[in-house]
Specification:
208 residues; 8 helices; single chain; two-stranded antiparallel ribbon
Amino acid sequence: MWCTAYGERTLEGAEAILFAETLLDIVDEIRLCRFYNYYTGVEVFDRLTFGQKISVLAIIGNGLLRKDVPCLELTDVVEGAVGAVFEHLINLIAVEIDEPELGYDWREKVVAARRETDGQDILTSNCDDLEKWIIEVDYLAEGILLDAGYNNNFLYLNYLPEYSKLLRRIVGVSDNYYCGIVDNLSDEDISRKIKDLRELCLLIVEAF
């Protein structure tokens, strides 16, 4: 379960399939780029080590795709990881548009997920305007993220502690939101986490 913008829930149907397949793809990309990094543009995620990235991706995968996992307190790191998955999805759509001969169908998956989440004015899957697809992906991300500003910690650094605390409460950021710590896994633990995450994601894809 996950604390989302629509309450505590687990992703289902086309939304779950899209997230699971994107999660699998970003894990593979990170593995390939282990020694020179893969940048999503989400700073709080990009600055993590390889082991930390796999650790937090396992956390969000289990939280969003399994009903038997209790909700955890959200931090900038875990929400940033969710944001990174959606940024990766945008990158995949960009490749699909630029290289149609590869036969990807990420846009179709986004359309299916948007339909199941009662989306309005949804694009057709043959649209080649990336900017419009960014908006579509943002709609899906907003259904999960609490919009607490995982990339905006710098906004609170220049204020007195008491004012910074008040500001966080106004915008819905807990006092511990920017104190998230992620385990830096050993090589053995990384392999195990990836194996477990792959099995979970493939189970989700095959179940719906």
